[in-house]
Write a structure and sequence with these properties.
This protein is about 15% helix and about 40% strand. The chain is of the alpha+beta class. It has one domain. The longest helix has 23 residues.
Length: about 170
């Protein structure tokens, strides 16, 4: 009995298996404060802490919820919204393209503070109070990931302010 091996097929299958395992491992290694049942809209490490935007059941601005979390796995320092509400009244998202500049801004406000999670090069978060930037924290190099395109489906899209979104 002679067994024929299809070497190219075996090589392709091995390559695809390795690629799938590498992708699964890299997602598991991403820093995130999202729960296993939540979708990660954005997450990155910032100076020993983690910033995450998490969602569940968010197929429109009026369904599911979106929450921003900042801190460590063992201690969340800030969570907005405090309860899981649909994002229409709490979050907005803008795609900013001006010349060579390309960013996505995911925005929310809590009291007199206005937060802007920005994804581009670099990515991070800035906080404004009375129109003045009081904090700008940049993601640690290599830890940020693009804002999920699904966020545009579930969060109210708004035009950038002044074209650049100052």
């Amino acid at each position: 009995m002679k067994i024929n091996f299809d070497a190219p097929a075996i090589i392709r299958a091995s390559f695809l298996t390795g690629l799938i395992l590498a992708c699964a491992k890299s997602e598991a290694d991403e820093p995130s404060l999202c729960q296993p049942h939540e979708e990660v809209y954005f997450s990155c490490a910032i100076g020993g802490k983690i910033m995450s935007v998490c969602a569940s059941g968010n197929i429109s601005p009026d369904s599911g919820y979106v929450q921003y979390r900042f801190g460590r796995n063992e201690k969340i320092e800030l969570e907005f919204t405090s309860k899981p509400y649909p994002p229409r009244k709490s979050f907005s998202i803008s795609d900013i393209s001006e010349g060579n500049l390309r960013f996505t801004h995911l925005k929310f406000s809590s009291g007199s503070y206005h937060y802007v999670v920005y994804q581009g090069s670099p990515s991070g978060i800035y906080v404004k109070k009375k129109e003045k930037v009081i904090s700008n924290r940049v993601c640690d190099p290599g830890t940020d990931q693009p804002i999920s395109p699904r966020a545009f489906r579930g969060i109210k899209t708004v035009a950038p302010i002044d074209g650049i979104d100052n």
